[in-house]
Amino acid sequence: MDGTAFTMTEIRKQFRTPLRILLPKILKSRDDWKAKSDARKARLKAAKVTIRDLQISRDYWRRHAAAAEAATAELREQLTQAEQDRDAARTALAAAAAPKK
In whole angstroms, what is the distance from residue 33 CA to residue 17 CA? Predict the structure, then answer.
């Protein structure tokens, strides 16, 4: 129906089927539509919750990975500095241990 209110007289003129048969069918149609709508709303809500949880998890792991990358970069820098110090110490040790001529 288009949302306009009908009087009983208009309904009787428009439909040939008796109201006792028409009414249960209309009510069943309405109830089926509402059940379908409720199921869709529930699925939508569940999907929104899942999306929210996944976004939170993704953000957590993104921050975790960035922190791990920063720590790795810092450790690499420390390793490079330690290797340079080692090489300088070896050079100094070799120069000190070399016999003077």
Answer: 22
- At a CB cut-off of 8 Å and minimum separation 6, what does 95 contact? none
Domain ranges of the chain: 8-89
**Residue holding tokens 């300088």?**
88
Check: CB of residue 14 under 8 Å from CB of residue 6: yes
Measuring CA to CA, which residue among 88, 32, 38, 2 is closest to residue 10?
Answer: 2
The whole-angstrom separation of Cα 8 and Cα 19 is 9
Q: How far apart, in whole angstroms, are the C-alpha atoms of residue 57 and residue 64?
A: 10
- Quick check: pTM over 0.85? no
The string of pLDDT tens digits covering residues 50-61 is: 999 999 999 999
Report the length, in residues, of the chain. 101
* Tokens encoding 52: 């929210």
Q: In this structure, what token pair is assigned to residue 56? A: 């939170």
